[in-house]
Amino acid sequence: MKHFNFVRRRLLTAALSGTLAFVGIGSACAQGAAEKGGTLIMVVQPEPPTLASYQSTAGPVGQVASKIFEGLLEYDFNLKPIPGLAKSWAVSPDGKTVTFSLQEGVKFHDGKPFTSEDVKFSILDVLKKVHPRGVNTFRAVTDVKTPDPLTAIFELSEPAPYMLMAMSSYESPMLPKHVYGNGNITNHPRANTPVGTGPFKFVEWQRGQVIRLDRNKDYHKAGLPHLDRIVARFIADGGTRAATLETGEAQIAGFSAVLPVDVKRLKTLPHLGVTSKGYEMQSPLIMLDFNTTKPPFDNVKVRQAVAYAIDRKFVLDNIWFGFGRPSTGPISSNFKANGLYTADVMNYDVPNRIEIANKLLDEAGKPRGANGVRFEIVHDLTPYGDEWRRFGEYVQQQLGKLGIKVTLRYEDVPTWLRRIYTNYDFQLNSGWIQTLADPAIGVHRLFHSNMIKPGTVFVNDSRWSSKETDELMTQAAVEVNPEKRAALYHEFQKKVVEASPVAFMLELDFTTVYNKKLHNFLVSPLGLYSSFDQAWLAK
């Protein structure tokens, strides 16, 4: 295992004004009154491509930006909305009007007041236009009325019950109109020097090393935040990430930034804790995405063959070390509780998977050549860590059994995002996606025809389009009867799994490793996507 270079650490500490409070190894303090001060070192993997969380939903972006921006609502562990920048809200009987009453005395980091005009701007001019999920989440919003500075009235063309589940700081950040209303929002000069209302202010970004956020002394919640500073650190090597937590040089790493094999070891150390709590609103799925508009994956039988080839239990046990479950389709089994999930879909996890896959490829007119190869493809790997490389190697091996020769490609995050979601210059792509608190928010964007949007990340990259499933999603989005809504989503799952625009692999359980001297960081089902306004470090 590589260890952190202590000379470099000293230089980095000096660069951050000599005020970093590294937490040493020790036993956890008993939870008591929150202590003021200190710097939280948070490992974020990989480095965010941007801090424009209003435009990119890449996982690392939200971990940092949610400390800077705030949303109208936040959520409790029962997945119920609670006040955020809105102190109260009311929905009209017909579901077509939602009135938000805003908190008083809220200021942006530049001292300007937060008002209903900022809400209107954020929803209509930003999130509805450029946010990968906001395009869908707020599609029914026709206007936002602002009768006074502390009242924002959303007018909808149809009921949108899912909308209230998408108003957090992570999902729908509120922006200052006086800053982001000037210039092109898709390439704004303040994208990476953001201004919000959150508990921490952006200070600096040392590319390849750290992002520094300092305490907002004018934060609208009295007495908060407790921390003086949050520093997000970027460490490419998985062993080094684990070492920084082990030695106390960092206090928290989430979204499985610590490799599963290291989690097994670190969880035995008395000063460290491991939890999978705080991901309840994420429901992440691992998938293989096909470019369905180009050969060979424009053929459903070829896509199905690949879906059959992968042994999901092997992938779970040997690459993600049991942190998850095999996936059956586009809706996570987390939705069993409200009836939206069904396992009654086409099953690709069968003992004779390779035999079936070879037969499908023969039927698809893809015979083996004299060298045993049917065709060659390039497999793009999500650039989020070593486990994705290992997964790619396994896919390469399994498809080789079918006579598919696979070349692996691993690029930096911005290049990968541009290749997959702007240029569509790929054949097979691996990745994980968050399906969030409602399918209308997190699932529709992956399969609806209206979510084929070049340049918008984490939407329908397969460019698969079906009028039938589009209609099922459209009906389910506005259906208020739970049983009817569930029936629509059950039919949707069956049709998508059979068409296989993506091959569903795993329902992923993310882990967070943390120093037990860190308290009150886990106060929301959004976990590391929450503001950390209540987090504190025992000295």
From TrEMBL:
<dbReference type="InterPro" id="IPR000914">
    <property type="entry name" value="SBP_5_dom"/>
</dbReference>
<comment type="similarity">
    <text>Belongs to the bacterial solute-binding protein 5 family.</text>
</comment>
<protein>
    <submittedName>
        <fullName>Peptide/nickel transport system substrate-binding protein</fullName>
    </submittedName>
</protein>
<feature type="domain" description="Solute-binding protein family 5">
    <location>
        <begin position="80"/>
        <end position="450"/>
    </location>
</feature>
<dbReference type="Pfam" id="PF00496">
    <property type="entry name" value="SBP_bac_5"/>
</dbReference>
<dbReference type="InterPro" id="IPR030678">
    <property type="entry name" value="Peptide/Ni-bd"/>
</dbReference>
<dbReference type="GO" id="GO:0015833">
    <property type="term" value="P:peptide transport"/>
</dbReference>
<dbReference type="GO" id="GO:1904680">
    <property type="term" value="F:peptide transmembrane transporter activity"/>
</dbReference>
<dbReference type="InterPro" id="IPR039424">
    <property type="entry name" value="SBP_5"/>
</dbReference>
<feature type="signal peptide">
    <location>
        <begin position="1"/>
        <end position="30"/>
    </location>
</feature>
<dbReference type="GO" id="GO:0030288">
    <property type="term" value="C:outer membrane-bounded periplasmic space"/>
</dbReference>
<dbReference type="GO" id="GO:0043190">
    <property type="term" value="C:ATP-binding cassette (ABC) transporter complex"/>
</dbReference>
<keyword id="KW-0732">Signal</keyword>
